[in-house]
Amino acid sequence: MIRQTICICGGGNLAHVVSGYLAAKPDCEVRLLTRHPERWQQNGSLELTDINGKSFNPRFAVISSDPARTVSGADMVLLCLPGFAIAQVLESIKGHIGPQTTVGSVVSSTGFFLMAKEILPADTGLFGFQRVPFIARINEYGKSASLLGYKSSLAFATMNVSNPQELGQTLSGLFDVPVSWLDNYLKVTLTNSNPLLHPCRLYGIFGSGKTKFDRPVLFYEEWDNLSSRTLIDCDAEFRLLLDRLGISKQDIAPILDYYESHDAQSLTDKIRSIQAFKGLKAPMIQLPDGSYAPDWENRYFTEDIPYGLLIIKAFAGKYGVDTPTIDKVLEWAQDGMGKKYLVNRHLTGKDLSLTAVKYV
What we know:
The chain is α/β, with parallel strands linked by helices. About 35% of the residues lie in helices and about 20% in strands. A hairpin with a 3-residue loop joins strand 9 and strand 10. The two termini are about 35 Å apart.
């Protein structure tokens, strides 16, 4: 593979693992653009170990909060950011992107393409993955992280890229898996992964109105049939939108197909059994009396609702698709979050300006 200079933007779980994985490659120069460079090891190292016990030895060329040092001259900029941070970072880097620089995102379902085509220069080459390449966890911020799961293949979409097959070969070399190209950015912008998966599970745990628990709930290991039924119903509405857009099952698999299930119970059993998800807890905070309650400020809410499920709702409204179950989940979530996105099932709430809907 031709030597690549890559700027990774972010400081979360994925930024740690993706930057470390790429920085361990001898043909990559990796620069890290982060708000907190002082929290990273000053010698540019990171401890990274995968689920099989393999250790990587990454070394970053630059760790900085300055786009002039990290973005300028890069072949590729790869965003590993939550949805709410994408627009701000794109604004900060747009003046440093050269004609040879391609800008991408490991997460496309939070509105990356929608924001990038509005904020960046019109001819900027863009790409985004349909699903993230790794399951990633920080052990100690800026010092160590774990790669808890690989994907056997990846899919990506592009905009303003003249040779997507060549870019796909580059990405395949970077992530060491087959990478296939999808011919429409909506095939990665719209997904039934986290934007449906997480809100439906949150509804399954907290939607009955129970607000206090005697212990933290395991997000996946205690997955229940209410969560599965809600997810299946939301996915059916999502499928109606995809049908209206001409997006096939081959491009975005139905939830039951993706998890090799056939009904709510088999989906519950499958999700509970996924090894990489073991031990992950629901977003909860401990109250003074020792009980636990939903953490409405957690990214499972602040990311997957305004920069996930609301994008699907906005496209559904744009193309005349009815979404009663999605609306039910959104109305429940906005009440808990203290927000107003939907009014009488329509996207007319006062807080929409703080979401990705304005870019749809």
